[in-house]
Amino acid sequence: MTQPADCADACLPIRSDMDLVWVRQHVRRTAAQLGFGLVEQTRLVTAASELARNTLVHGGGGVVESTCLTSGRVRGLRLVFADEGPGIPDPDRGSLGAGRPSGGGLGIGLGGTRRLVHEFSVESAAGTGTRVTVASWAATPPRGAP
Ligand SMILES: Nc1ncnc2c1ncn2[C@@H]1O[C@H](COP(=O)(O)OP(=O)(O)OP(=O)(O)O)[C@@H](O)[C@H]1O
Ligand SMILES: [Mg+2]
Asked: pTM value?
């Protein structure tokens, strides 16, 4: 896997509601650059929005690292949401979205987010913070791609 030349990696802070707006804009723009269709963009933006809100609300703030991926002619985007908050005591339960909706988000939760992306993993334990990694791939190579 190599990095596409026309797509920049980024690390964005998640410290405020305004940062959530920047994260959504960044993911939308980058996914479009990578050739994601509108529906694919929206799925990834929705997932990113939920995870960024979790980082802010439950994790006490953190960052999202965004990495552009290339595998053959297919391009993708990986997002890692990281915080040093209290952690998810039981990530498997959390992954199923068994928590009570916090009210601030779309109510999709971790369980719904997992179904919006191609790859999903949670690394978390009480006291060590949380890293949620998601990745999705564009269905078709961008127009004009060799
Ligand atoms: N980054 C995080 N740090 C600590 N705990 C987290 C984190 N992300 C999720 N959790 C825990 O996992 C639970 C489930 O998260 P999930 O996103 O599914 O639901 P929610 O945020 O409570 O509600 P909503 O449906 O509004 O997203 C949360 O209630 C919280 O306890
Ligand atoms: Mg949530």
From this structure: 0.89
Judge if the beta carbon of residue 67 lies within 6 A of ligand 1. no
CATH number, position 126: 3.30.565.10
| Number of structural domains in the chain | 1
User: Domain range holding 36?
Assistant: 10-137
Q: What is the pLDDT of residues 32-42, one digit of tens each?
A: 999 999 999 99
Q: Give the pLDDT confidence of 66-116 residue by residue, as tens digits.
A: 999 998 889 999 999 999 999 987 776 645 554 555 556 666 889 999 999
Q: Is the CB of 58 under 6 A from ligand 1?
A: yes
Report residue 22 as tokens: 């920047």
For residue 72, how far is its CA from the centre of ligand 2 (angstroms)? 34
